Amino acid sequence: MNDFSQLHEGFSARAFASRVALKGDEDLAGEYGDHVLNPDLDARIGGNPLRDAAVLVPVVDRGDEASVILTLRNANMRKHSGQVAFPGGVIDPEDGHVPEVAALREAHEEIGLERSRVEIIGRLPKYLTTTGYSITPVLGLVRPPFQLELNEAEVADAFEVPLSFLMNPENHRRESRVWQNKERFYYTMPFGDRFIWGATAGIIRTLYERLYA
């Protein structure tokens, strides 16, 4: 079913969870990343050790119109400052090398999202980046009510974007810029005054391609 208008009725949190369950672990396995749009990066990514990281993709149960929590990283951060991101970070030894544990821990540390409000329902393929990370996106349903408490040292803001907006391919822009003397391609998804791009947009695009395309 490729007609986006026919899919619109399926953007509740439970409809989202049903799509994830229908795909199963096998269809959601594999790897994605910056190299998909830039095949010449494949050797560069594969030839270097990557740090394991995890992010939480928090899909909020808002009735018929689910939303996704995203953060705006603090402008003073050493890496990826001022960018829109999912809550997440490096998988620490105390996480037991389990992406779900790391994603929930980071979400609690960054935005105060209580673990008890999140139901983990699956994963996306790992997303490999040229910045040296192998990111496991963890899919979670968030049950209201909840109250966020931002760690201002890391997060400047947290906001919600309708799932239907993010899963509409008309909102996915394939753009490029010259980096290290080569043209690099990436996705962007402008939403109001928020500019979603980079790995975050790549993960959202992966979600669309795996569940809605």
Mean pLDDT metric:
86
Shape: globular
CATH superfamily descriptor: Nucleoside Triphosphate Pyrophosphohydrolase
CATH architecture: Alpha-Beta Complex
CATH C-level class? Alpha Beta
| Number of beta strands | 12
Q: How big is the Rg?
A: 16 Å
Give the domain tally: 1
- Roughly how much helix do the residues carry, as a percent range? 25-40%
Uncertain runs: 4-8
Distance between the termini: 8 Å
Q: What series of H and E elements makes up the topology?
A: HHEHEEEEHEEEEHEEEH
- Please name the CATH topology: Nucleoside Triphosphate Pyrophosphohydrolase
Helix count from the secondary structure assignment: 6
Q: Oligomerization state of this entry?
A: single chain
Task: Give the amount of beta strand, in percent.
Answer: 25-35%
Structural class: alpha+beta
Q: Your description of this structure?
A:
By secondary structure, this protein is an alpha+beta fold. The chain has one domain (8-211): Nucleoside Triphosphate Pyrophosphohydrolase (Alpha-Beta Complex), CATH 3.90.79. It is built from 6 helices and 12 strands. Strands 1, 2, 3, 4, 5, 6, 7, 8 and 9 form a 9-stranded mixed β-sheet that branches. Strands 10-11-12 form a 3-stranded antiparallel β-sheet. The longest helix is centred in the first third of the chain and has 15 residues, at 13-27. The chain is globular, with a radius of gyration of 16 Å.
